[in-house]
Sequence to fold (248 residues):
Amino acid sequence: MRGAATARKKYTAGRRKAKAGDRLPRQACIDIPAVYRKLFAAHGKQHWWPGDSAFEIMAGAVLTQNTAWTNVARAIANLKQAKVLSPEAIVGAQPKRLAAWLRPSGYFNIKAQRLRAMCRWLIERGGVKKLKKIPTSELRHALLAVHGIGPETADDILLYAFQRPVFVIDAYTRRIFTRLGLIEGSENYETLRHLFENALETDVAMFNEYHALIVAHGKNICRKRPMCGSCRLADDCPYSAVFMHASN
Ligand code: SF4
Fold:
């Protein structure tokens, strides 16, 4: 017990130092393309996005807001079992039944409204096939106008359902790249999206893999309490020394 308390104290002290360091100008030792290569070497191919159709990916992108994928998978399984995984069936479903199917994904009443809004929009616009013909910036603009779809969800949909070259920014991206000294972390969404898109070759398959690798790394290694001792980026990360010291 005492050992655990000491480790906790050291960790807290390390975090204080890390926070103080955050305010100092930090020198990044690695660039955005090199981070991709190292993450790929560490985690391998991620096979994203799980889903049998563009519509299933779109529904998953709405349902994954603020929850883990395992919960989304359960909600999608419910929709499949009830044979309502289509825009028309979701729009036609009773609101209470739809919310019940979505219950495992959390915030199910809000998500039911959002999913229904996206389905209505899809129907109005003639479905996925018609939307595939729309240029990326126009499609992004249209998605952002749909109730409950913000930049991250819109970009998930553009990249994974429509194979468009947009880079998805999420909380894991902010955490990892702030620790690496490559961003401040407080930049707005569009600034970060452009930063990544400009630093990389325009390559849908690589954008797909890179975002999935960032999620894998943020979930398993660069957690809130990071596991720097197991991190392939540790030699290039200004934070690793602080965190490793804190956990020793
Ligand atoms: S070394 Fe630590 S802080 Fe840096 S990226 Fe890896 S896990 Fe995150």
